[in-house]
Description:
mainly beta; 4-stranded antiparallel sheet
Amino acid sequence: MVSGTPLWTVIENGPAGFDDYAYAVALLPSGDVVATGRSAGDAGDAWMARFDPENGENLRSWQYGGALADEGRAIATDAASWIYVVGTVGNENNGANIFARAYFDDLLDGGMPGGNVELQWPQTIASGADDFGFATAIREAHDQIVVAGSYGRAADPEHPDAHARGFPLTGEDATWTCSAGIDALANDIRAIVVDATGRVFVGGSVRTATANPRTDAWIGEIDLTIGTGIVGYAWTLRLGELADVDVVHALAIKDGELLVAGHLDTRGFLGTWTTQGVETSRIVDPGPEASEIHGIAADTTGAVVTVGYRTTDAGMRDIEVVKYTPAGDVLWSDDVDGEAHEDDRARAIVIADDGTVIVAGHVRAPASDSDIWLRKYAP
Length: 379
């Protein structure tokens, strides 16, 4: 079969209708696909689901949240088939907190069809100002899950700090915390990757001036040499230009280097940096259309796949999935225009051991609601 051939596609309207989004995707040891996002729009709940990897059938869906806006933004799994979801939950003061929750699906143990998705533990991060959870990754060598996003400053709520914490996989309180914002202005962590030794690399955005929305993309490494307690950064590096809006949305590891992706002004970019922060390559979309990359992954051959969107001549956004050879040449691309021909976006990617590619995002339906979208591609 030709590489990049779509094997199945899921377009799913959430249980409450309205706008539904898939923001993150991962694989269980069984090969089952798990995803998280938001169901029912701005007043919706964090949404999670498990899909059959062979045909995309929705095997199980569940939700978490209250009366306010809640969403899952990141998902990870471990060797015991626990499912870890990180995101943002509204609080009673109309604000937001970071949540991290661990689940186990009884059906994975061959349980009865009516078996439950069991909550193993919950954690909430609350600063007293708005907090947002964007990213997670597992440090297998240290039995930890890293939760990251932005942490509000009660005395200066307009300028939250980039924030990360390391929780034991069993759900006890965090053993280390990094709230060392890389600037006195607003900054956040949008992406995490952990290498085989347990080093934690992060990326996101940092405000460039108090009175404007411009941001620099940045990457860095959390300094975990002390092991526990309050930690900082081993190094940080800004990638953008002061006059633009630049963001790092995704990180991965390839051949011992950092794969970095996001957008610089209105152009998607990807590149490689050493684990000490030295740039070794960079590709910026030449345009003229606006584009962004929201997910990136490398397979066992060194091939790289990026997902995001490209703006059409009509000013709408179409999903764009691109696979590159190990040498950096485009092997194939897939542009997806939803049925409503409006704004569609891919948000996340995971590559299975056999090289198949699973992408998650959302497409607009004819009624102008957004639907959950997943697609699997041949390796």
